[in-house]
Amino acid sequence: MGSSYEVSNRADGAHEDAPLAQARIDLAAISANVARLREAAGSAETMAVVKADGYGHGIVPSARAALAGGATWLGAARIHEALTLRASGITNRIRIMAWLLAPGDDWAAAVAADIELSAGAIWAVEAAEKAARAAGRPCLLHLKADTGMGRGGATSAEWPALLEAAARAEATRHIRVVGIWSHLADADAPGHPVADTQVENFRAAVAMARKAGLRPEVLHLANSAATLKLPRTHFDLVRPGIAVFGLSPVPETADAAALGLRPAMTLSARLISVKRVPAGQGVSYGHRYRTPRRTTLGVVPLGYADGIPRHASDTGPVLAAGERRTVAGTVCMDQFVVDLGDAPAEVGDEVVLFGPGDHGEPGAEDWARAAGTIGYEIVTRVGDRVPRVYTGSCAPPSRRSRSRARSAARSTGR
Ligand SMILES: *Cc1c(COP(=O)(O)O)cnc(C)c1O
């Protein structure tokens, strides 16, 4: 007790202005990743997908960095995400699309803010038409075909009726069908056997739309994996998400560096407790870990409430006291413990959970493997208690514009 009190005193003030934990976001990496994706996209345009708060990186700064890298479209799942982008000052020179729509959403606000929407069912065409009437301007609509994903979009059986409804709505001039689109189920799998069938089904769906008198200008199908690996899926526009943030969409076959990508997020925290304990000390809930010898335990103030997977108990990797180490015992709600051996350590020392690997720290992908999940989930779930700190040559938004974006996000119900 006495000694850890002393240790805390020693660190007092030394790191006063450094946050306890932070996610540093390298905006220059986001811009460079998008430039790399644009190159892979060839003549297709690039929509940077920034849903889910920019995969946990912060939606507005991420979007701005993606635009600086050459993205000409932004993609969001929900309407309120798209509205957050517009409210941050991204003008309608940049096309923004939102696709995960529900009947109770504010479709009229989306139309009024020049957000393009998706319809995969007749009710959505009707909602779009009604919203366009209310907003007093046409709704730009992308019809979604389910070409094999088995999630959203019209099945081939539903497609003819959807086309008919869309053509009828176009005649009222409230709707313009500007796109036909779909989503791939296995672009990330080696050999991707389903993708070829999906491309075939997509072409058939587009041909039927043309026959029904529709004139879509943009056909789009490709996610990150397909943007990088399947040129035949590019059509007019690609929709990369995870690769924008520098994680490999195909970690089994190629890491980020091999794909020319750089992870944009570094998650770190400062030790809040450092103490010597004897051999045989049980550590954390359930004593899942027991110290094999006299050692130093450090406490990291991040837990599952911050998105650190509890499944990474005993296995999650960190860079601490100069070495790669693993989580000792159970990940708690707000903290976890690391066994630091005999390495010198003090309260306030930085522990890096993951980053681009420049200093030997693990990657988000290593955490994904440790927890039996995918890198997407690791970065996206980093919680609200962890401040995002922006770095990189792409001018970060000022404090004022960030807080404006935050209040815009609040007023749109985020
Ligand atoms: C999330 C999403 C993407 C981006 O997928 P990544 O695998 O992150 O590149 C593209 N299109 C749709 C419809 C999505 O929901």
From TrEMBL:
Annotated residues for binding of substrate: R151, M333
Region annotation (Disordered) ranges: 390-414
GO molecular function: alanine racemase activity
Catalytic residue list: K51, Y285
Pfam families, per the entry: Ala_racemase_C (PF00842), Ala_racemase_N (PF01168)
UniProt catalytic activity: L-alanine = D-alanine
InterPro entries per record: Ala_racemase, Ala_racemase/Decarboxylase_C, Ala_racemase_C, Ala_racemase_N, Ala_racemase_pyridoxalP-BS, PLP-binding_barrel
Cofactor: pyridoxal 5'-phosphate
Pathway(s) served: Amino-acid biosynthesis; D-alanine biosynthesis; D-alanine from L-alanine: step 1/1
Entry-annotated residues carrying N6-(pyridoxal phosphate)lysine: K51
EC number: 5.1.1.1
Alanine racemase C-terminal domain location: 264-391
Basic residues compositional bias, start-end: 399-414
Coiled coil region boundaries: none
UniProt keyword terms in alphabetical order: Isomerase, Pyridoxal phosphate
NCBIfam families: alr
UniProt family annotation: Belongs to the alanine racemase family.
Reported function: Catalyzes the interconversion of L-alanine and D-alanine. May also act on other amino acids.
PANTHER family linked to this entry: ALANINE RACEMASE, ALANINE RACEMASE, CATABOLIC-RELATED
Name of the featured protein: Alanine racemase
Record organism: Streptomyces coffeae
